[in-house]
Amino acid sequence: xxxxxxxxxxxxxxxxxxxxxxxxxxxxxxxxxxxxxxxxxxxxxxxxxxxxxxxxxxxxxxxxxxxxxxxxxxxxxxxxxxxxxxxxxxxxxxxxxxxxxxxxxxxxxxxxxxxxxxxxxxxxxxxxxxxxxxxxxxxxxxxxxxxxxxxxxxxxxxxxxxxxxxxxxxxxxxxxxxxxxxxxxxxxxxxxxxxxxxxxxxxxxxxxxxxxxxxxxxxxxxxxxxxxxxxxxxxxxxxxxxxxxxxxxxxxxxxxxxxxxxxxxxxxxxxxxxxxxxxxxxxxxxxxxxxxxxxxxxxxxxxxxxxxxxxxxxxxxxxxxxxxxxxxxxxxxxxxxxxxxxxxxxxxxxxxxxxxxxxx
Length: 360
Hints:
Blueprint: H1 2-48, E1 56-61, E2 64-68, E3 83-85, E4 89-94, E5 106-111, E6 124-129, E7 132-136, E8 147-152, E9 166-170, E10 178-182, E11 185-197, E12 202-215, E13 220-225, E14 228-233, E15 248-249, H2 252-255, H3 259-262, H4 277-288, E16 313-314
Parallel strand pairs: 8-10, 13-16
Antiparallel strand pairs: 1-3, 1-5, 2-4, 4-7, 5-6, 6-9, 7-8, 9-11, 10-11, 11-12, 12-13, 12-14, 14-15
């Protein structure tokens, strides 16, 4: 009896060990599908969207749900390679990465924005990927999708080889800048940027090339230079609520492997670099004083990418909210850099300035 029980115990232990091995192998196999999915989906854009023209959207990869504007008939946007006029779109809702179902929503758009009709071959490229919902809010005096409301996932990369959900935007060579309104914020972009947004959190602008300017409804303008990330607080309806913090150094953990996405753009980016600690300190000092933030010292020379409107109210120290007294460290070890702290100065509390607004 003892010998039988012993063999039964050994048998059960062996079964559990085998089950454990199978689970580990299955998990590794599931993980390995993620980079393949990303690579195949993005490479497929070249073929699927080869016929894309101005103010058109292309279904790049499954899965997504498209809703046409009222009165639009014969709207077909259901499979890879389908192309529709952007003016016919009311909403697009892309699905996040699902390895089990082998789905990851991807859409490419070529938009006119405010590029003159005299430049018909020049378009702004949008690539939407992952958990993204976009609603066309353009009015009669705007070009298709020149104004839109955006919601995305954040910190949701399926693997190290995948980017987080978001929208990549690149302006064409030879065009100084283009303008959009996103979630109630006027944006001027002369670069390559990535947008992410969540209700009651932030609209996040990450600049990978060139520069961008965010202009709030009160007229205050905030520059977002190459290698930095800028966050604007959003309410439940995805509209601005309050004032931003100081920009921070671009976080590689947030961007993930977004360089894969940039390879699908007309102007591929060889590298995506974050701003250094020394440059971040200089940038903050100039922003606090309301001084130009481009081309000074070792800061990127990005003024050429933006139009000189002359009437902008440039942000100064009073136009930035003070962060709550929380540690500056972030998930990848870089600090927020807010209010004079260098971006790699971790573990130090940010002390609120008396009399100035504090971000909730």
